[in-house]
Amino acid sequence: MNVTELARQLRTNTKEMLELLPQYGFDIGARAVKVDDRVAEKIKKQWKYIKRDLEEKKRLELEEKKKKEKELRKQSGETVFLPDLITVRDFAETLNMSVTQIITELMKNGILANQNQNIDFDTAAILAEEMGFNVQKKQSGKLNEKHEENKEKALEEALSQTENLERRAPVIVVMGHVDHGKTRLLDAVRRTNVIDTEAGGITQHIGAYQTIWKDPKSGVERNLTFIDTPGHEAFTVMRSRGAKVADIAILIVAADDGVKLQTEEVINIIKAAKLPFIVAINKIDKETADVQRVKTELSQKDIIPEEWGGNVPMIEISAKQQLNIDKLLDVLLLVADINEDKIQADPNLSAIGTIIESHVDKGMGPVATVLVQSGTLYKNDPLVVNGEIYGKVRAMKNYKGENIEQAGPSVPVQIVGFKVAPEVGDVLDVNKASVSEKIDIKQKQNKQTGAEKYDFAKKEESEDDEEKKKYLNLVIKTDVLGSLEAIIGSLEKLRHEEVGVKIVGKGLGNVTDADVKKAEAAGGVVIGFNVKATPIAEEIMRDNKIDFRQYNIIYDLLNWAKDELGKMLSNEKIIHELAKVKVLAIFRTDKGAMTIGGRVEEGKLEKGAKVRIKRNGLMMGEGSISQCKVGQQDMKEVPSGTECGMRFEGKERIEIGDVLEIYKEEMKVREIKFE
Predict the structure, then answer these.
(1) 89-96, long-range: CB within 8 Å, 24+ apart, which pairs?
(2) Do residues 192 and 337 share a domain?
(3) 252 bridge partner residues
């Protein structure tokens, strides 16, 4: 066979092949033009093992090179400055490395990210330090961080410009672990039945409500504004937002369940916001209730009850049976009176408030819930959000759904009139109308709907295809912005080196034909959360067999995504090394099989196990053991130090002196885990 033809069949270049072959016992000459056909066949059989050996050597050389580079960086004291958030591409440029290298390092740490995704400072710092860099934090921060800071600063400045302060209704945020009874408590307070309207009995939006309670001391009726926050772990951000606009917090803990993970998160949020708070120990009517256990667990988190010498009021209640609800409200009013100087506002100013929920209604368009914090909001007022005019107030509704003409301090109100849905946490400041410009609607909509530029033809071949990653491509449409953020944030926590979730489209409102086209281009699935599809979109999905899934409970959506990713994973092959056998004799050679004798040098030989044939340290082939005998007796297992006869099944020929590496394989189903 011609040497050039052999190289072509081996998918390598001739020069490289001629240089390598002598290292593996095939000395055909450095300038050979032809090679014997039998030798060529042997080379082709061994090439995969030669290639595997070369790859391992290259890997070790690369690791050694990386190790040396790391040591050099440490010795030189090379320092990099990193912001709070940085894209993978920018991170690679900062370290003077390729994007592929950085993505590989991220994957080793269980993080799936493309070159355009952000990673936080802690993650970037750990990676950089592992590679030998000294890391310092940039003081300037990223634009989005500044944006959030500016929001808070703008709100503080606006609220400080007051003259004629009057007492307003305290804003109370109800927080706690999922299913500990937050919404049931509000139900008892308002004598309504909100929980039955929530999907699965789980609050998935921020709701704001008002109630009237008579002051037991003065007999005067007082307004109380309540904010209900989700308890599920996916809604941590939403809980934080609830805390930022509140005056007082109620930490609700179930007497039969105690302090849980989300309870601890809530405690941290309350402490960070420096909110005065009380603890409502709920479900005391249950047989399994243990109030003392709850108090003990809270005290371990530095939440000490008043009766134990602390400063935190703890009220034992049953929201379901409406036990001690009046006592709870009395304590709330007492806490409000203690903090009276902070619970004031000027109703005569232009309205200032915070967006606590936002969505797109099919009939009314963009709708937002605003908590007015100072001043009074009137119908036809301009809607100025973060220095941009989003429209004007066309209609306002209170928490009962009644149309109103104005809303004063501490009043939650649903507003119709936005040209585009604002973001949760945005600041509404009517006073800035004269110095604000109209919002660029198209630009804002593109940002909200995730109009990212994905090249589905290429799909980042240099990174993704190289690592053979598989993606579950999703187009997600929800009814409210808070749910969209929570869903995307939770899906990003599904981490695995082989599979991941890619959001190829997102937005608020019903699924449209444009959404379907995004899913079709990406080979993805359309997700509707509390929304439907337009007739045209339904027709396209039906004709093109595009999977459309509708959900109203986030647990169900996340569980489905987890299952789908699990299906995409290949099973993990686990190799168990069993024994090493020295070949002592060849008794019989058949087509595709041999009868041989040998001695078990290490481990335990098992019938049915697989075999690697080693000759002078070089892999010669593979096969399996179909039969084992010691003397005339069939054996399932042969221990170390025993001579035995074996029936080898395989194409390769075994020779006396060969070493047989005995092993078995196990296929294990991989699992997707939430972080």
Answers:
(1) 89/115, 89/116, 91/119, 91/124, 91/127, 95/128, 95/131, 95/133
(2) yes
(3) 176, 280
Angle, CA of 343, 347 and 349, to the nearest 5°? 120
Terminal-residue alpha carbon distance, the chain: 57
Identity of the residue numbered 223: N
What percentage of the chain reaches a pLDDT higher than 70?
A: 83
Closest CA to 599 of 650, 638, 655: 638
The one-letter amino acid at 500: G
Q: Checking DSSP bridges between strand 593-603 and strand 605-606, what pairing results, if any?
A: unpaired
For residue 368, what is the domain's CATH number? 2.40.30.10
Which CATH number characterizes residue 528's domain? 3.40.50.10050
39 assigned to some structural domain: yes
Instruction: Using DSSP bridges, classify how beta strands 365-374 and 352-361 pair: parallel, antiparallel or unpaired.
Output: antiparallel
Residue showing tokens 């993805």: 524
CA-based nearest residue to 647, from 600, 602, 601, 590? 590
Same domain for 367 and 418?
Answer: yes
Output the pLDDT for position 72. Answer: 66
What is the model's pLDDT at position 593? Answer: 94
Q: Are residues 534 and 555 in the same domain?
A: yes
Ranges in the chain, pLDDT < 50: 140-147, 192-195, 197-198, 200-206, 231-235, 450-467, 674-675
Summarised one tens digit per residue, pLDDT across range 546-602 is 999 999 888 788 889 888 888 887 777 889 999 999 999 999 999 889 999 999 999
Domain limits at 210? 169-342
Cα 347 to Cα 224, 333, 343, 383, 424: the distances in Å are: 17, 21, 13, 18, 24
pLDDT, one tens digit per residue, over 227-276 is 876 544 444 555 555 557 888 989 999 999 888 877 888 888 788 778 89
What distance lies between CA 129 and its chain's CA centroid?
Answer: 24
Looking at residue 673, its amino acid is: K
**pLDDT attached to residue 73:** 61
The verdict on 274 and 197 lying in the same domain is yes
Alpha carbon distance 408, 373 (integer Å)? 8
Answer with the one of 568, 603, 627 that is the final residue of a domain. Answer: 568
Locate 134 and state its tokens.
């000294």
Which of these, 472, 584, 495, lies nearest to 109 by C-alpha position?
A: 495
As beta bridge partners, residue 86 has 119
Instruction: Identify the domain boundary among 568, 584, 615.
Output: 568
Domain membership flag for residue 540: yes
Per-residue confidence (pLDDT) for residue 149, from 0 to 100: 52
For residues 111 and 119, is the Cβ–Cβ distance under 8 A?
yes
* Number of domains, the chain: 6
- Is pTM beyond 0.70? Reply is no
DSSP secondary structure code for residue 652 in this structure: S
